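tool_call predict_complex ligand=alpha-D-glucopyranose
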Amino acid sequence: MTKPEKPLAAAGLGRREAMTTAGLALGASLLPLAPRRARAADRTQITFASANFYGRETIAQVVDVYNQSQSKVQVTFVQLPPPSSSTEVHQALVQQLARRNGTPDVFTQDVIWIAEFASAGWALPLDQYFGKSVQDQYFPGLISACTFQGKLTALPWHVDSGMLYYRKDLLAQAGAQVPTTWQDLTDTAQKIQKSGGAKFGYLWQGKQAEVLVCDMVEVVASAGGAILGPDSKTVLVAEPPAVKGVQFLYDTIHTSKISPHDVLSWDEEPSRGPFTSGEAVFLRNWSYVYKIAQDPASSSVVDKVGVAPLPHFPGGKSAACLGGYQYGVNAHTQNREAAIDFITWMSSPATQLRFATGLGLAPTRPSVFDQPELIQKQPFMHTLRDVFVGATPRPVTPKYPQVTLALQSSVSRALVNGNVQDELDRAKKRLTDIVG
Ligand code: GLC
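tool_result ok
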């Protein structure tokens, strides 16, 4: 049985009333899923709310391993919607954290919420628990993503980034290389579609949802552009590289027709389905897809899938949107030591390896990336390490929730009406009001 990395500070562990209702009196959208277990009266009870990721194991099962590994803390997992429902997960957390009543004690936060939760005073600064020597064990870019105004307010869980999945067999039959430019991708996709090798050329996520901003960041950055400048105030969303990127997305549906019209209503899973059932040449998605593609129970393309960095425009560089989730401790928890002990275990090398091999969630510690077990079970993670580490962040601002809604609606409209410059000009005005 896995042991916690460091023993729980015996003193100072506040007891909490048995939480028959405490952790469960969460908003209606928060569904407690952990099986009812006999709870030793001397355990500190804490709640852990997270978007729910799926794989060979569930998060609830991993939490259970922690519960059984020690006898001082009992964690109840509160399941939030899946990460593709980013807006809903965000709403559920904001409703709870804004009450400042300490529930949930621990939560997970998408990388885009760190600035907002920190600036609202909802996330406990963690520097005193995780000093420099601990922070040095993670990729530096992720520690900086977890740091707001000089304070570490999140502890890395897993890193994610957009990547290109391709059918090795179809490319070989067509005598094509893995594309490095968007034009190569378009040409190869069209060639294979025409020859009847696949129904769809390129699948991506055009639904008016958070993932649309991720797909947008990638094409825009691959043309050398960005949404905001490095000062997080200069709005670059209507500049030529941004227009070029969004125009490319429009063209995949309406001009080159390598993407079906349906991508406009697809987020991650709907776009993944036709790829793993063998109907598409290329797919943009996150790292979780590899495990599914290699599982005969859910895939008809086992051993036929390769993973590569996303293409770019001539003269530009491949870009992957930085995604992933981090642990946060509620600034109002009455169970700090228990919460810290739990996230220490959840972010430990052993648990990160477990999440990587069981749920396809890439580690945030370089040491775990190099573990032979990871290289064997998730070979693409090791190969694409630089893609994860060099991923491009979405705008970093406490006002991100407003920024994303403005982008989602403008880009959605542009993808339907094709007035890319006009819609991005409108987005620029809205973003200038929000962050200016
Ligand atoms: C993934 C990413 C997350 C992103 C979300 C969008 O879960 O890890 O950062 O916001 O997808 O759907």
